[in-house]
Amino acid sequence: MSDLIPTGPPAVLPSSSQVVLSDDTPDIEELFGFAREAELRVRTLRMLIEEEVVDARGAKTITHEILLRHPGQARVTTRRSTEPLSKDYHVWLSDGETITAYDVRSRVASVRPVRGRVAGSDEPGLPAFARTYQPLTQLPAGSLADAFVHPHGLMRNVLVTGPLAVLGKRMVAGREAIVVRSQHPRSVKVLVDRPDRSIEVGFARDSGFVLSLTERIGEQITRQAEVTRLDLDPDLPETAFGLRLPADVRRVY
């Protein structure tokens, strides 16, 4: 069996350079700068995302539960079934040094060290578009959880590759979201590389976290994800970041 024992946060953590948005309707540059530092405005976080994806087999709903405590502790539980007793879910857990991934349905797990970043990729002398963002607490790379909590990659690699516009505001999970549309972003798979494709992203006005993401081809919604619960600085028990693997689990590496 394997247990991950979390470590406590240091006395001082990095803070965001901007506490609140200065304007009622910020421009794209200010909004993206504010959202880039979203995780620095909290010490702990609980976020629940409900995602609906439409493909050739129809619509399916996926839920993502994110628990985070700076620095380094994170847990992402991805459920692919709406049945409360279903074992069709995946757990990703990190203590800042080791990542444990466990697929409950297949009973397959992996335990590996956290990967380091490319040296020099976050140097302040690089232009903003060329710098990589070094998160205070890592989440699964390329995941929806990472995009909602660390939106820098979503903004730099997807949204800015197409014409941008601020559409307005809407309420998501009881919070005001500023909605931005990117028309025909170029960072996309060939199958949906169409001029009528668009992505709309809602950023929380109070914190900068992503609250919603909607992908469309024409008027047809192909993917929609929204935060249904967002707790900033909640009290999280130590057990939230522990994982006990069954003795008969199959390890891939």
Description:
By secondary structure, the chain is mostly beta strands. It has a single domain, classed as outer membrane lipoprotein receptor (LolB), chain A. It is built from 3 helices and 12 strands; from the N terminus they run αββββββααββββββ. A 12-stranded mixed beta sheet has the order 7-8-9-10-11-1-2-3-4-5-6-12. The relative contact order is 0.20. Mean pLDDT is 87; it is low at 1-11.
Nutshell version of this structure?
With about 250 residues, this protein is mainly beta.
Tell me the number of strands: 12
Q: Summarize the biggest pleated sheet.
A: 12 strands, mixed
Give the second-level CATH assignment, the architecture. Clam
Task: Write the H/E string, N to C.
Answer: HEEEEEEHHEEEEEE
CATH class: Mainly Beta
Helical proportion, percent range:
under 10%
By helix and strand content, what is the structural category? Answer: mainly beta
What topology, given as strand order, has the largest sheet?
7-8-9-10-11-1-2-3-4-5-6-12
CATH fold-level assignment = outer membrane lipoprotein receptor (LolB), chain A
Uncertain segments are 1-11
Give Rg in angstroms: 19 Å
Shape: globular
The average pLDDT value, as a whole number, equals 87
Termini separation: 15 Å
Tally of distinct domains: 1
State the fourth-level CATH superfamily: Lipoprotein localisation LolA/LolB/LppX
Attribute tags:
single chain, 253 residues, mainly beta
Q: How are the SSEs placed, and which strands pair?
A:
Layout: H1 28-36, E1 44-55, E2 58-69, E3 73-79, E4 89-95, E5 98-103, E6 108-113, H2 144-149, H3 152-157, E7 164-172, E8 175-183, E9 197-204, E10 210-217, E11 220-232, E12 250-251
Parallel strand pairs: 6-12
Antiparallel strand pairs: 1-2, 1-11, 2-3, 3-4, 4-5, 5-6, 7-8, 8-9, 9-10, 10-11
